Amino acid sequence: MPGIRACPVSTGVTVPVVRYGNVTTDVDRDTPPAAAAEGRLAVMASRATRASVMLTAVAVGVVVILWTMLGARPEPVTRSEHRIAVADGRLTLDATLFVPAGVTADVPAPAVLMAHGFGGSKRSVTSDALTVARNGYVVLAWSARGFGTSEGRIALNSTDAEIADVSSLIDWLAERPDVRRDRAGDPRVGMTGASYGGGASLLAAAADDRIDAIVPVVAWHSLVESLAPNAAGDTPGVFKQQWASLLFTAGASPRELAAARRSPPAPARPQSDRSVLCGRFTREICDAYSASAEAGALTSEAVVLLRRADLDGALDRIAAPTLLVQAQSDTLFPLDQSVANARGIARAGTAVKLVWIPGGHAVGASDGNIERVRALTLNWFDRWLRDDESVDTGPVFEWTDRASGATRSGTALAEPAGSRTLTLSADGRLVDGAAPREDGPGDGVVAWAGPPGGEPAALSSLPGLGAVADALPPTDVPGQHVTFETSALERDLQVLGEPRLRVPIDATTTDVVVFAKLYDVAPGGLVTLPQQAVAPARMRSTPATVTLELPTLAHRFRAGHRVRLVLSATDRAYANPRAASVTRLTAGSEATLALPTVPPPGGVTVAAAVIVLSAIALLVVAGSAVAAARRRAHRDDGTPDDAADAVVVRDLRKAYPDGIVAVGGIDLRVQRGQVFGLLGPNGAGKTTTLRMLLGLITPTGGSAELLGHRITPGHPVLHHVGALVEGPGFAPYLSGRDNLVSYWRAGGRPLAEAHLDDALAVAALGDAIERPVRTYSHGMRQRLGIAQALLGAPHLLVLDEPTDGLDPGQIRGMRDLLAGLAGGGRTVLISSHLLAEVEQVCTHVAVMNAGYVVAAGPTAELAGDTRSLEITTDDRPAAQRVLVDLVGADHVRPQGSGLLIDLDGREPPDLVDALVAAGVRVRSVTPRRRLEDAFLRLVRSDQQ
Amino acid sequence: MTTELIRQLRRRRTLLGLVGTAAVPVLIAVAFVVTGGGNGGDDGGGDPTGLFQFATASGLNFALVSVAAMSPFLLLTVIALFTGDTVSSEASWGSLRYLLTRPVPRSRLLRRKLAVGVVLSLLAVALVPVSGAVAGTVAFGWGGVQTPFGSLTPDVAIVRLVGITAYVAWTAAWVAALAFLLSTVTDAPVGAVAGTIVITIVVQILDAITALGAVREWLPTHESVAWIALLATPPRPGDLTRGLLLQIPYVAVLLTAAFWRFRRKDILS
C-alpha cells in the first residue's frame, strides 16, 4: 500500500521543511542594511558567513529529514476485538476495530465499515482494514451473520437481518468518541466490501442515510438476474448452476467456521440433518436453494427470497456518493449489473463513479487489482468522508482496454458512441449492414439440437477459474450450435456496451433455451470468449422474433480478427434443459446483431490527429499561397525607374542575434552613371552592405533602394542588377557556358535577352568556356563571374573585389570595361580594398569602417584633402634630421629615395625654407594626393 | 524546372546514385546465382517480411525481395542524397547567392529544388523493382509470386508490386522532407545527407524498442513494412492507411519548417 498515496507520516515530515524555509527568510531580513555600506570585503565576508550558516542549516535540515523519513514506520494501528450486539440484543457479531494512532476523542476520525465476501469473515479483510486505518480512518471489520464466529444464520443480506445489523454497527460507532460525528447518533462513516459485502454496502446505504460514502466492489444489481439470467426478458431465465452451488457450499460449510472449530477442541455437538445439509443458511434459503437446484430453475419461493436483496427499488434511496468497481470478466455479477446500479444511483442525483477492472469475480486474482482498488477506495473516502475537495476522483467511468492493458475513461456511464449492425446470413456469415444486398445475407433457416438430458454440454466458462479461463478455448458440441462469423475486420472494433441480437426463433419445445456468445477469432484460428460472457435466454412462446440482450462487453476485436456469434443449446455452467429439442433460426435480413461501439484507442486518435494536422498543413499551404498571390498582385514588376538614383541607402543596419553589429546604420547615394567605390578594411561591413542591397540578407533596420525600388528578397528589379559577391559561384561539373546559360534560364527570361556573346567576350576564356568550371583557375572563374554579372546588360553592376585574381593586363582591361559601362549610362558599385584601383576607376568613393561610413564624396575631393609632401633631396639623413626637428618624428618617414612628410598644418614653403637653410639641396617637392593616405587617415582617426 | 532537372541529371553524383540503386538488385541476383539460391542457409533473423525464402522463385519474387531488402535503409540513403543535397550543394558552390539575385524568388527556388529531388527519388525507388524484375527474370525466370500468404499470378503480382513500390516511396516521404529541411539549414551537403541518415537510424532504433509502447506507433518508420499486407488475398488496407496518413504530419511540419526557415534566412554562403 505505501506509495499509492501520501500517508500522514509524510505530512509530519514536511512541517520542519516549511519552518526551515521561514528561518532562512528571517536571516535574510535580519541582515542590517548597514552591511551594504561597509567595505566590499566586509560584505563578502558576511556573505560567506551567512552562506556557511545556510549551508550548515541545509545540511542539518537534510539530516533531520532523512532521519525522520528513514526512522518513520507505518503508524501503529490499535486493534481491539469486540462482540457487538445486534437485532435488539438477540445476536452478537464478531468485530475488530482498527484505530490509527493519534485518533482520540480530541482528534476524531471518520469511520469505515469493512464488509467481507461470501464464505469469508472479518479475518479475510484484515489487510484491507489495516490499509484504510493506516490512512487515518477508524475501521470496523465484522463477520456477517452466519460467518466466522458471529451468531445468526445467513439471510443473504436481507433488509431485516444483515442490513439491519449494519445500522446497529453504525449506532455502536456513533457512541465512540474517537469517531467523527455529523450529529449525535450519526457518525461520519463509509462502507466498502466486495461481492456479498459490496451488495451489503449498497443495500445498507439505501436503508440507512447515515452512511456517507460507499465503495461496493463486484456487487450485484439483482441476484435473480445474476443467478438465473435471461437475455430474452425480465423473467428468471436459466439457472446458473455452477456458481449457485459453489456459493451454497461456501455458506453451508464456511471455512472460517471450520477453522474456528478446529483450534479450540470444542466438545462435539450433535448436529441435526438440516444443519448438516444447510450449514448456517436460514431454513427458507436452504429450502429454496435445494428446491431450485433440484428443479434446475429458480423456484418462485427462491425468487421472492432473492428479490429481498434486489437493488431495483433501493437505488433511488442511496444518497451516499458511490464508487462502483466491477470486474470485466466476472461471470457471477457481470458488467451489466454495475451499469444498472450506476445508472440507478446517478438517476437519484447522487455522485457516482464506475470503474471496470480486469479479471474475474475473484478480484485479487488479477495482478495489480488489489492495489488499484485500494487506491480508488481511499481516494473516494478522502473525497467524500473527509470532504477534501482537492482530491480528484477522476472521470466518471473508467475501464480497461485489455487489448492494450490501458485504462480508458469516459464522461458517461458505459455509454456507447455508435453501433455497428451485422446481419446473420444463412451461410454462416455475419454481414455488415441491416438491409440485404446483392452479395448480402442469404435468407434461410438454420437449426440445431438440444441433447436429451442436457449432455454433453458446451464448455465456455467455469466459475473460480478466473483469468486462467480466459486462455481456454471454448468448446461447442457439434450439431448443438450454429455460428455466424464476420470476415476479417479491416480495423479494430471496440465494443462497449450491451450487444443486441434480434432473431426469428422457432423450436420443437415450448421451453426454448439458447446460449448466445460472441467469440473473438484470431487470424491463426485461436478462439477466445471475451470476458467468458455467455447470455442464456429462455423463451416460452415461439415462434417469435426475439431480442436477446447479450452480456455487456468492453472488448476490442483487433483488425484481422473475426467476430463469431455462437448460438448453442447447452452450457456446462448452467442447468440445461433435459428435454430433447430442435431450435430453428431464420437467418436473413430479419436476423441482426447490433454491436454498441466506441472508437478504438490509438487508431482513431492517430487518424484524427493526422486529419487535424493535415488540415493545418493545408491551411498553411493555402494561406501562404494566398499571401504569395497577394504579394504578386502588389509587387511591382521591377522596371527600373530612370529618374531615380541607382542606389539609395538610408540608415541601413544589420545586427546579428549574437549581438555582432556588422553594419551600424549607413547612408549612401549612388547616382546614375557613377562608378562608385566602397572602401574599407576587412570587416568594415562592405560585403554585408552589398548582400543587403541584393536582398540576400535582411536588414535589421533602414532601407535600401535599387533603381527606384525598395529591395526585398528576390525583388524583380534585381533582373536589372548584375552582381559579383565574394567571388564567383558555379556548378563545378558544368562548363562555363552551361553555367551562364543555366544561371540565366533560372530567372525565367529568354536567352536572347542575355547578350551571352557580349558577356563571353568579356570573360575572354576562349575554348575553355566549354570545359567544366572545376578545371578553371581562380582568375578564369573570376572573369566568368564578371561575365555572369554582365549578362542581360544590367542597369546596375554590384561588384565585390572584381579585380581579385586578375593579372595586371586583365585589371587594366577591367578598368576600361568599367569606364566604358559608366560612359554608356550604367552604374557600377564596387567594393575593394585595392585603393589604387579604386582611385583610378571610381568617380565617387565611400569609406567604411567598423560598420559605419566615415567619409563619402567624389574621389578627387576625398583624396585631395590629404596634405602630405614627397621630398627628394641629395642628403636624405640630413633632410630627415631637419624635418624631424620641424614637424616631429611621427610625421616623417622614408619613401623610396625621398621622404614622405605629413604636413600636419604646416605650409610646404616652410619645409623647403628649413631645408635650404640647413644646406640640404632639394631636388623635388611633390604634393601627395593619394587616396591611400586619405583612407588610412580616415580609418585611423575613426579608430581613435 | 526542366532546366533544374537536366542540371541535376548531368551531375555525376546523380547518375552514380541511380546506377548504384539499379545495380544492387543485380548484385544480389548474382550472389544468389553464385551461391546456388538462398533457401539453404539459416534466415539469420534479417528478414522481417518472410519473403527472402522465396527470392529465387521467380523474377517478380526477386523484384519483391529487392524492394524488401533495399527499402529499410539503402533507398532511404539514396533519397536523403537526392533531397538533402539540393539547396546545400548550391550553397557550397557559392551559386545559391547568384540564383537568389538572379532573382529567383526563394519559395520558387525551393519548390523547384524539392520537385527535382522528389522526381529523382521516385526514379530511384522505381528502379529497384524494375532492375530486380529484369535481373531476377534473367536469373530465375518469369513466373508468379510466392508469398508467406500464398501465391499470386504474374498480372496480380505486378499490380501489387507497383502498389508496394508506391507505398515504400511514400513512407520515405518524411526522410525526403527531413533531408530537404536540413539542406536549407546547412551549407554543407554532406551535413544534410549524413544528418538525415543519422536521424533515420535513430528513429529506426527507437522504433525497435518495444518498451517505448505507444510512442512507437507515432514514429514515421513504424508502418514502413505494412506493405506486406498488400501481398495477402485480398489485400488488407488496415495498417497501410495508417502508414499513409502517418507521413502527412511529418512531411507537413518538416516542409513547412524548410520553407519558413529558408524564406527568412540570411544567405551568407
Notes on the protein architecture:
The complex is a heterodimer of chains A (944) and B (269). Chain A is 33% helix and 25% strand. With 944 residues, chain A is an alpha+beta fold. In chain A, the strands form eight sheets. Chain A has a ten-stranded mixed sheet, with helices on both faces. In chain A, strands 13, 14, 15, 18, 22, 25 and 26 form a seven-stranded antiparallel sheet that branches. Chain A has a six-stranded mixed sheet with strand order 32-33-34-29-35-36, sandwiched between helices. In chain A, α1 (8-30) packs antiparallel against α3 (40-71) and α5 crosses α6 (196-207). Chain B has one domain. Chain B has helices at residues 2-9, 12-35, 59-70, 74-84, 86-93, 96-101, 106-140, 154-171, 173-185, 189-208, 238-264, and strands at residues 145-147, 150-152. In chain B, strands 1-2 form a two-stranded antiparallel sheet. In chain B, α4 packs antiparallel against α10, α5 runs parallel beside α9 and α9 (173-185) packs parallel to α11. The chains are: A alpha+beta (944), B mainly alpha (269). Chains A and B meet through α16 and α18 of A and α1, α6 and α11 of B.
Report the uncertain regions of chain B: 38-45
Number of beta strands of chain A: 40
Count of DSSP E strands of chain B? 2
Task: Tell me the domain tally of chain A.
Answer: 6
Poorly predicted runs of chain A: 1-46, 69-74, 255-268
Strand content of chain B: under 5%
Can you lay out the helices and strands and say which pair or pack?
The complex is a heterodimer of chains A (944) and B (269).
Chain A: H1 8-30, H2 34-37, H3 40-71, E1 77-86, E2 91-100, E3 111-115, H4 126-134, E4 138-142, H5 162-174, E5 181-183, E6 186-187, E7 189-194, H6 196-207, E8 211-217, H7 223-227, H8 241-252, H9 255-262, H10 273-278, H11 283-295, H12 300-307, E9 322-327, H13 335-347, E10 352-357, H14 369-384, E11 397-401, E12 406-410, E13 418-424, E14 430-432, E15 444-450, H15 467-471, E16 481-485, E17 493-497, E18 500-507, E19 512-521, E20 527-528, E21 535-539, E22 544-549, E23 553-557, E24 562-568, E25 581-587, E26 592-597, H16 603-634, E27 647-655, E28 661-670, E29 675-679, H17 686-693, E30 701-706, E31 709-710, E32 721-724, H18 736-746, H19 756-763, H20 778-790, E33 796-800, H21 808-823, E34 827-832, H22 835-841, E35 844-849, E36 852-858, H23 859-864, E37 868-873, H24 876-887, E38 892-895, E39 898-902, H25 908-917, E40 922-928, H26 931-943
Parallel strand pairs in A: 3-4, 3-7, 7-8, 8-9, 9-10, 10-11, 29-34, 29-35, 32-33, 33-34
Antiparallel strand pairs in A: 1-2, 2-4, 5-6, 11-12, 13-14, 13-26, 15-25, 16-24, 17-23, 18-22, 18-25, 18-26, 19-20, 19-21, 19-24, 27-28, 27-30, 30-31, 35-36, 37-39, 37-40, 38-39
Chain B: H1 2-9, H2 12-35, H3 59-70, H4 74-84, H5 86-93, H6 96-101, H7 106-140, E1 145-147, E2 150-152, H8 154-171, H9 173-185, H10 189-208, H11 238-264
Antiparallel strand pairs in B: 1-2
Helix pairs in contact in B: 2-4, 2-7, 3-7, 3-8, 4-7, 4-9, 4-10, 5-9, 7-8, 9-10, 9-11
